[in-house]
Input
Amino acid sequence: MDIRDQIADWLRDYLVDSGADGFVLGLSGGVDSATAAGLAVLAVGPESVLTAILPCHSDPLDRQLAEQVIRAFSLRSVTISLDDAFDALMERLPPTQHRLAIANIKPRLRMTALYYLAQTHNYLVLGAGNKSELLVGYSTKYGDAGVDLLPLGDLYKTEVWQLARELGVPREVVERPPSAGLWPGQTDEDELGIAYEELDRVLEAIVSGERERVDPDTLEKVKGMISSSAHKRTLPPVYRRPQAQPR
Output
């Protein structure tokens, strides 16, 4: 059984065990969400998958590529513009020059919309995070990281590209430079400061313990990324009251 069928079986079993009726996921026009959508269709059929295009002052190309994915997999979809919601919130927040603080509002608004759709339909929110991004914390906490399950969470980015081709994700989507769409011209690799192919080689070396063939400076950089983002991979710490000592 290949990885496509293994993940599809996992999704199908998870859905049955949860008592939910299907999956909802946001389509960004990128390869990760397109691949997750293709896996969901393979698992439960297009009638049990709802996709959402959620533009928030987004590049029009995002929607065009998302619509290609919808056609490729015969998906149901809704489009909900979040422009006005973003603008209204920004008008009420104190001004800031912190670009990420502003940009991260977008994925958090999308998360809210997806859970609204999920609860409306008794669906689960399907995430699109891959292993490379999860390990180094390249996600928005309570934004795109706010999901119910992650079918790509044990696949490196380079493996996602291969799986996307096997599933029949449109070529333009597969070949598009990865971007979270946080601001005009933003790309994932620029923000990460490392190409995905190199990042995956380093992560594989760290996971396997075979680090001798990795550039020491790059190794330390990636280890720092893993360490500083540890909070994104755990539940919030809970204060525990001291236990009363026996008398």
